Amino acid sequence: MVGDPGSEVFTTISWDGGSRLLAADLHIARLYRHAERLGFNLPSNLTELIFEALSKAEIPGEPIVGEDQAPFLIKLGVNPNGDVNLVPRVNGRWPNPMKAISLEAPRWDGSVRGTKHGDWQPYFHAREVATEHGADISLLFDGDILVDGDRCMPILLDNDGIAYYPTPSKGALDSVTLEQIREGIESAGVPVREARLTLPMLLRASEMIVLGSGLGVQALGEIDGRQIGQPNGRLYQAAYNSWMVRLQTAWMGLDDLEG
Length: 259
Fold this sequence. Notes:
This protein is α+β, with helices and mostly antiparallel strands.
């Protein structure tokens, strides 16, 4: 039910078109965390319910993406009654580098901020506005502070050599994609830290990338027509390489989670 944050908790998860989901353990753990913050409990057998629903899901079409993105995505929602709803879709391709526009971030009170909840329409609207303005994504700001992306987590490489992402306590989502590839980025020599991302930081950034279950890792080249650093640099390469490893190794079926 649009307008009621407590009506649902959801995640968007990569699907191989068969019986496996990418990093299913991390997505399910986040569902539990976010549901608790929204004020309801999820069933203890949620994993079994998800894979039972997955066994009935239909392929939504022919894949159109390359090897660096998952072929399909599923919006996986769970309501306070424990009902699981899966909506599969074909993943989409993105230009390199991507273009973004800036929009004001939606605001929710208290524990709702930073969760994937039932009042997600402002994020869907932000996607539509980006398309209308000839951009690929919207980046969402609270004043001059970057807090989120409409379907992604933005990360910048500052001129101090550290990669910074928006602080979850300020309303940003905790990114499952970042959770998967952070160690790989740091192993490549790029420290990753949360920070208050101000407009001056963006304008001086060496480069920016965006992460998400659907996007994977993509370079971001401009915001509101202003070039941001030099795309496809060392941050992008470190994140991309780590993501490619996950795409080859992190698919999970029910047996993987119960073992």
